[in-house]
Design a protein that fits this description.
Blueprint (H helix, E strand, L loop, with lengths): L26 H11 L4 H9 L4 H11 L1 E2 L6 H13 L7 E5 L6 E4 L5 E5 H6 L2 H17 L2 H16 L6 H31 L2 H13 L8 H13 L3 H11 L7 H12 L2 H7 L14 H18 L3 H10 L5 H10 L6 H14 L3 H9 L1
Parallel strand pairs: 2-4
Antiparallel strand pairs: 1-2, 3-4
Helix pairs in contact: 1-8, 1-14, 2-7, 4-6, 4-8, 6-8, 6-9, 7-8, 8-12, 9-12, 10-12, 11-15, 11-18
Length: 370
Amino acid sequence: MTDTTAKAPSRRRQRFPEISTRAWEHPADRSALVALRKLTGFDDVLKKLAGLVSERSIRLMFLATAVKTSERQFPELYNMVRDAAYVLDLDKVPELYVSQDPTVNAYCIGIDTPVIVVTSGLVELLDEEELRSVIGHEVGHAMSGHAVYRTMLLVLTNIAARIAWVPLGNLAIMAIVTALKEWFRKAELSSDRAGLLAGQDLQASMRALMKLAGGHNLAEMNVDAFLEQAAEYEKAGDLRDGVLKLLQVLPQSHPFAVVRVAQLKKWAESDEYRSVLAGAYPRRTDDAETSVGDQWKAAADHYTTSVKESKDPLMGLIRDVAGGAATVGGKLRDTFTGAGRTNGSGSSGNGNGTASGNGNGNGSGSRDAD
């Protein structure tokens, strides 16, 4: 076992001994992970299915093509990954590599021995505390075992390409891929929370997400204004905007930046987050006893609450359907034909959306998202 005193953090942060990943996992992510963890040997079967997944080859590739952080190479980044492991009580510190790539990115790959990679573009974009939150995010991926998602997506996308000629076969696989991407998006929200727990600086975590959207000119941006932008996106305009948002997000593996920053701030203000800081968090020793049924119920409750609280017009329609509203068909007809408009100011803004989104939106919008 590694001596944890050898990786004490560079500044004082609260540490979470024996913390379970369930403490930060999004309900939809946690329910699926708990179910997978109950399947003995699942990871071994998955790796055999993947075939091409070799953790030895991954490590050798980065040893050959990137810079491995250490006390002599990128020492500040090296200390950050040790800090994150210390705070989140991860015994085996993942290796961290810096790859020469102007693209702003960071990722964690591997199942048994995860490896974290950050690009030079990311290192140049973010300040110290922002980088700390991103590295904590990736350590969260490693601890939750999220590399399973990436492997599953690789396998299924491969299968989909090979059976594209089979009638309906590709559609069935792509339906699973779409569901996995929804799962993956929730995994990203989970790891944003892990990054916050590792860095314990909400402003830095939100700045990092804002910079991912707008670049390095921090003096030209404002976190509060970005949160207002997130609220504007959530409200959308009318039902058409809600549908377009859905079409745009379905192909994505990550939630949009404004969604991530709003979700992270919401969690940081929640009782759940305060409980973790107070030391009242789930422990790893209880992971084996966790009920799959309870976790699926928590996920269902989350989605139900999200629909109820959402200001998105599409979610409003879903509420109407769930409530048995008799006017749903009329709402759809009026929205997409332009009939029954009485609000002058609202119809003006929505009319502009129709010109680009309704006439060609369902076709071109979907293609752009892909």
